[in-house]
């Protein structure tokens, strides 16, 4: 069951409460280059990103946030390090949320100025604690960037912010070590009801990053922890969005389209199942229905999985296979016709008027 959290408004979107676990990403263009940054924001939005964070390294970037706000519909988060004045400028420019790292903002007095202005302007804050930038005192006390060190750093800032009457806070505790990240989130989840931004920071790229992110974020989501996610990948941030979607769907917390089950094939499979699967993926690519689709290579596990799915193909021999729908055999068909039968039966499960792609000849 999902952990109960306080809802925090970020522009038109809510993080926490009953709101779906949202997907965020961060632009990696130069914030001062408006055209390339807007293009990337557009691509992120097309991919399904729901909140966009931007680095604000200097005054020029902070002031430009107003222009971005006028030209984008997604909530904008300003990412601030080192200089609290940039946070104040970002608030004036209309940022919907400010991410602050308490380890490098320059002490409580400066944090207090940002909190007070955010309170006046109704802007949310994220306390983004990062293992790489914990204060010297916290590191010495815990003997390094442990889970407890991350939690202590966050709790310290939260108590200070609450003392100023500020509660619109989202928390993140990020370490590049998956186990430490999961442990830190679990510990803070027991102690506060603020929504949590979850992710594994500096995960790298490619398969390694995908595995680390899926393990960290997935482990937390399966325990009901996490209200917004950011997958951190070196490379095009659009990939972060598609990976975040896959993780949320695999954890069963959101559904963005069909879930396709396919067997790995083995010596019993007598057709090109990979080609069959590719065709099913192509046909179903743009669907939003949360259907389960099975594509299975032989009668060992094929009929069982295909029967459990909303619709499925189970190959029976090199001569053909069976299409199942809602637990029943619909038709035996030769391999050459099986996609046609599948497509026809799939249509009957979709909203009226849904047009599926033409079959590849
Ligand atoms: S379903 Fe059949 S072909 Fe696929 S992996 Fe299992 S035994 Fe092999």
Short description, anyone?
With 361 residues, the protein is of the alpha/beta class.
Poorly predicted sequence stretches spanning 5 or more consecutive residues: none
Mean pLDDT over the residues: 94
Cα radius of gyration in angstroms: 24 Å
Biggest sheet details = 8 strands, parallel
In CATH, the topology of the largest domain is named TIM Barrel
Terminus-to-terminus distance: 46 Å
Assign the CATH class of the largest domain.
Answer: Alpha Beta
Judging from the principal axes of the Cα atoms, what is the shape?
elongated
The set of bound ligands, ions and cofactors reads:
iron/sulfur cluster
User: β content, as a range?
Assistant: 15-25%
Order of helices and strands: EEEHEHEHEHEHHEHEHEHEHEHEEEH
Query: How helix-rich are the residues, as a percent range?
Result: 40-55%
Structural class: alpha/beta
Classify the oligomer. single chain
CATH architecture label name of the largest domain: Alpha-Beta Barrel
Tell how many strands the DSSP assignment holds: 15
Count of all domains: 2
The CATH homologous superfamily of the largest domain is named Dihydropteroate synthase-like
Strand order within the widest beta sheet: 8-7-6-5-4-3-10-9
Query: Total number of helical segments?
Result: 12
């Amino acid at each position: 069951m999902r952990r109960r959290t306080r809802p925090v408004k970020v522009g038109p979107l809510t993080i926490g409460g009953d709101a779906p676990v949202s997907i965020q990403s961060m632009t990696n263009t130069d914030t001062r280059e408006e055209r390339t940054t807007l293009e990337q924001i557009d691509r992120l939005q097309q991919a399904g990103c729901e909140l966009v964070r931007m680095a604000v390294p200097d005054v020029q970037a902070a002031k430009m946030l107003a222009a971005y706000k006028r030209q984008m519909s997604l909530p904008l988060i300003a990412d601030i390090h080192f200089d609290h004045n940039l946070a104040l400028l970002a608030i004036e420019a209309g940022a919907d949320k400010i991410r602050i790292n308490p380890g490098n903002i320059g002490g409580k007095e400066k944090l207090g100025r940002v909190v007070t202005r955010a309170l006046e302007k109704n802007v949310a804050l994220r306390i983004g604690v990062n293992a790489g930038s914990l204060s010297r005192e916290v590191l010495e006390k815990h003997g390094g960037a442990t889970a407890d060190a991350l939690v202590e750093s966050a709790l310290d800032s939260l108590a200070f912010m609450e003392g100023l009457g500020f509660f619109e806070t989202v928390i993140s505790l990020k370490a590049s070590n998956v186990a430490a990240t999961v442990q830190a989130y679990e510990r803070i989840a027991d102690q506060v009801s603020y929504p949590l931004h979850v992710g594994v920071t500096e995960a790298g790229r490619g398969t390694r990053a995908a595995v680390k992110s899926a393990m960290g974020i997935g482990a937390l989501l399966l325990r009901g922890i996490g209200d917004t996610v950011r997958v951190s990948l070196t490379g095009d941030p659009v990939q972060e969005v598609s990976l975040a979607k896959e993780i949320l769907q695999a954890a069963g917390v959101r559904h963005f389209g069909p879930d396709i089950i396919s067997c790995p094939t083995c010596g019993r499979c007598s057709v090109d199942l990979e080609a069959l699967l590719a065709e099913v993926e192509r046909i179903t690519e743009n669907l939003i229905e949360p259907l389960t689709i099975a594509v299975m290579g032989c009668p060992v596990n094929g009929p069982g999985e295909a029967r459990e799915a909303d619709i499925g193909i189970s190959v029976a021999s090199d001569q053909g296979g069976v299409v199942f729908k809602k637990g029943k055999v619909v038709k035996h068909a030769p391999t050459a016709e099986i996609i046609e039968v599948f497509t026809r039966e799939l249509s009957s499960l979709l909203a009226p008027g849904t047009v599926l792609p033409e079959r590849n000849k």
